[in-house]
Amino acid sequence: MPVIQERRWSAEDVQALPEDPRNRYEAVDGELLVTPAPRIPHQAVVAAVYRALFEVVRAHRVGLTLFAPVDVILDARTLVQPDVLVLPPTGQDVMRGEVPAPTPLLVVEVLSPTTARNDRLLKRQRYQRAGVECWLVDIDSQLVERWTPDAERPEICVEHVLWEPMGLGRRLTVELLPIWAETAG
């Protein structure tokens, strides 16, 4: 029986796909991930997480806080679009789009029924291999799974997350209770 070779997608392949507002396209280790556009509850939590992180990151001059869609290229076969991310302080070349963005200090994925499996398994493990801290926000349970690059298990955070960005030398507090209160349905 002949062997059927599975296509391995590159970051360039994903970027060459036509824009489609109904779907998000990513590749992890060459595997193409296609997920539908997020729904309103998901986006409300993304917005609340972004605002909370933005305030902390700005107050402590940690870097740049962004939200999807932003292409993060971790290697030639991995292009992801985390829901929220924090980049280290960037120069004008990055802001003008002249050079690729650096590896994020932090990525946040808000779990939904259509993304949870990929976020928990493929993407989270790939972020860890890249040395990036990853927070998985579970809307239904109102908690954050905090995965550091070397963690075998997550820290479960309900009221706040204590985050120590690399090189800062101190922990920052990101309050979660206001996020849950703001986005309660």
User: What's the total number of strands?
Assistant: 12
CATH architecture: Alpha-Beta Complex
Rounded mean pLDDT score: 91
Helix content: 25-40%
**Distance between the ends:** 53 Å
CATH H-tier superfamily: tt1808, chain A
Count of individual helical segments = 5
Q: How many domains, in number, for the residues?
A: 1
Q: What structural category do the secondary elements indicate?
A: alpha+beta
CATH topology title:
tt1808, chain A
- Low-pLDDT stretches are none
The fraction of residues in strands falls at: 25-35%
* Sequence of secondary-structure elements: HEEHEEEEHEHEEEEEH
Sheet with the most strands? 6 strands, mixed
CATH class: Alpha Beta
Write the layout of secondary structure elements.
Elements: H1 11-16, E1 23-28, E2 31-36, H2 40-59, E3 64-67, E4 72-75, E5 78-80, E6 84-87, H3 92-95, E7 106-110, H4 116-129, E8 133-138, E9 143-147, E10 155-157, E11 160-163, E12 172-175, H5 177-183
Parallel strand pairs: 7-8
Antiparallel strand pairs: 1-2, 3-6, 4-5, 6-7, 8-9, 9-10, 11-12
Helix pairs in contact: 2-5
InterPro entries: Nuclease_put_TT1808, Restrct_endonuc-II-like, Uma2
Organism: Gemmatimonas aurantiaca (strain DSM 14586 / JCM 11422 / NBRC 100505 / T-27)
Protein name: Putative restriction endonuclease domain-containing protein
